[in-house]
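**User:**
Make up any protein.

**Assistant:**
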Amino acid sequence: MNKASKYFREHGYCSIDLFLRIPDLVQKCKDACDSIEEHDWTYIIHNSTEEIDLPYNVPPARLKQVKAGALKVYQEGGFAFSFRRLTDLEGVPIHPAMKLFDDYLTREDFLGLLSTLSGRLIGAMEVRYINRFDQGDFLTTHRDPGSNLGIALNLTSQWNLNFGGLTFILNESQSSVHDILTPSYGRLFIFDTSQRTVPHFVSMVTAPPAQNRIALIARYG
């Protein structure tokens, strides 16, 4: 624990195996994810002209258009992303899994762990959603904005690292790779989003269509 906390202070992020520390929390989050149906996931895509959340039943031609735009920006080295997610949308009833995450991510033992690792007081949860990376999905280099810190809890069992979906941490000038974080089951990444934002990206996923990379994302004040 001291080693991870020291690393967070020095580098602006750290990574721990949450399953070893709070196994029931990880399992409950995984169970909640397993309750999400295919039609619950939206497509969140950012290209050169728009950032949009598209429903599951979006016309294929429209989905192909915005995805092609994002891929073009990706190939040109710009900022773009394409993946699936479950979040709160205006006019749509909150998904039962999201209600559970509200409870799990504000548990006293979990917030205490975040405080110990970061050396900070942990305020209210400001953002939370679940992301899902399917074949062809990616997230190019960016920094996470926020008032305190962010987390990513990986919930994919036995992810094949050859399929991509790795988080690459870059140096400050973004000229070289400082570290690579693997999305192992129960692995928790903690990022500074205030004092020292860290440039990073998620490599394109090449997994077969039946497999995907899932993570629970949250930001705290």
In short: The chain has a mean pLDDT of 95. The chain has one domain: 2-39+95-220. The domain at 2-39+95-220 is CATH 2.60.120.620 (Jelly Rolls). The helical segments are 2-11, 18-21, 23-34, 60-75, 96-104, 108-118.
